[in-house]
Design brief:
Shape: globular
CATH topology: Rossmann fold
CATH architecture: 3-Layer(aba) Sandwich
Number of helices: 13
Largest sheet: 5 strands, parallel
Number of domains: 1
Low-confidence stretches: 35-41, 186-194
Order of helices and strands: HEEEHHEHEHHHHHEHHEHH
Oligomer: single chain
Radius of gyration: 23 Å
Strand content: 5-15%
Number of strands: 7
Length: 357
């Protein structure tokens, strides 16, 4: 009878070993232990608001990395220079890139821009909110900034419409936000409740063989993908054209638009170029999907600079002409300290060239 347990014991040992192997595999390629889950969707400094933005930043929030001031903006250490002269304000709105997600208060490009103007009466307002799309960013200016701050120049840097149009596909519109994820207090599902080896084996052994029709529709080169993306991009463009008028026409504020600038080189084959990006495995499945739409949205933003009071700062073109682009990022999307310094320098250069202050 006891010999009958040997195969059972062997199978259990085998499954436990296999489970451990895949946790190691997950840790190596995803950057975190699977049984702890990922906190990528948890944003502890967000709170619900009663308007169409759905969420914003908590006032007077502070942790080891982020500080939100009493006005709900990321702290930027402004010190007035000449007390006898008025202060000019550069208001930066957008998503997690200008906010400086993943880096400290003194490693964001609004902070470095503030340091460039140290001693001058030029204040940089970091009004960006992680996960905001373009429409939310305009609302942020209209609701939280405009009533309290006279912006001499506005800088907008938002990319989340790209992720939203790919996530919601046929259902995408500019009223859709990431509110459900960003206000969640729960981290992603913990894997220790369910063994992961079946899922990992499927990913490794059958991902290419079992490509679903839904995946095929979203292949970069498929007609279905491009038709749907063209439709979603048109929705974005219509919203952009309507919302941006609130700033550049109704309020006559010069506005700098910064394109979507991801880690990889746009002029090289995406997958090959993106392999050097930190934690690229976390983004590899969406990278191909985003490629076409990113190019089209950036092309649209560039064309908008033909309109009065809209200026296009082509950081993509600048980064394309540098070596080791990946050093300017902490991951596939967000800027490192080096990348942030370069952004600040190029913004100042454009402000001077166009005499915007």
């Amino acid at each position: 009878m006891r010999f009958a347990f040997k195969p059972v014991i062997f199978i259990l040992i085998f499954l436990i070993s296999l489970e451990f192997f895949f946790h190691l595999y997950h840790r190596y390629y995803r950057g975190f232990w699977s049984f702890f889950g990922s906190e990528v969707h948890r944003v502890t400094f967000s709170q619900e608001v009663d308007d169409r933005r759905k969420f914003s930043l908590k006032r007077n929030f502070k942790d080891d990395l982020y500080t939100i001031d009493e006005n709900g903006f990321r702290i930027n250490y402004y010190k007035k220079g000449n007390k006898n002269s008025s202060t000019k304000n550069i208001c930066i709105i957008g998503d997690s890139v200008p906010f400086g997600f993943g880096v400290s208060d003194k490693e964001t490009y609004p902070y470095f821009l503030q340091q460039i103007y140290s001693g001058e009466n030029i204040r940089i307002i970091n009004g960006a909110v992680p996960s905001y799309n373009f429409r939310q960013s305009i609302d942020r200016w209209e609701i939280d900034i405009k009533p309290n701050v006279n912006c001499n120049v506005i800088i907008i840097n938002a990319a989340n419409d790209i992720s939203l149009m790919h996530r919601f596909k046929e259902n995408y519109n500019t009223d859709i936000t990431w509110v459900n994820r960003r206000l969640s207090n729960q981290i992603q599902k913990k894997y220790f409740a369910t063994p992961i080896y079946f899922k990992r084996l499927k990913e490794i052994l059958f991902s290419k063989l079992n490509k679903s029709q839904e995946q095929k529709k979203w292949d970069l080169n498929s007609k279905e993908y491009k038709d749907l993306i063209k439709k979603n991009i048109q929705v974005f463009e219509d919203s952009f054209s309507k919302e941006i008028k609130k700033i550049v026409v109704n309020s006559s504020i010069p506005t700098i638009v910064i394109p979507i600038n991801l880690c990889y080189y746009y002029t090289l084959p995406l997958i090959k170029s993106a392999e050097s990006c930190k934690n690229f495995s976390n983004y590899s499945k969406v990278a191909n999907q985003w490629g076409y739409s990113v190019l089209k949205v950036n092309e649209f933003l560039l064309n908008q600079s033909a309109n009065k009071n809209i200026f296009f700062l082509d950081m993509v073109k600048y980064f394309e002409n540098t070596v080791r682009k990946e050093d300017k990022y902490i991951d596939f999307v967000h800027l490192s300290k080096l990348g942030a310094k370069i952004y600040a320098k190029k913004i100042k250069q454009l402000l001077e060239e166009e005499n915007l202050l």
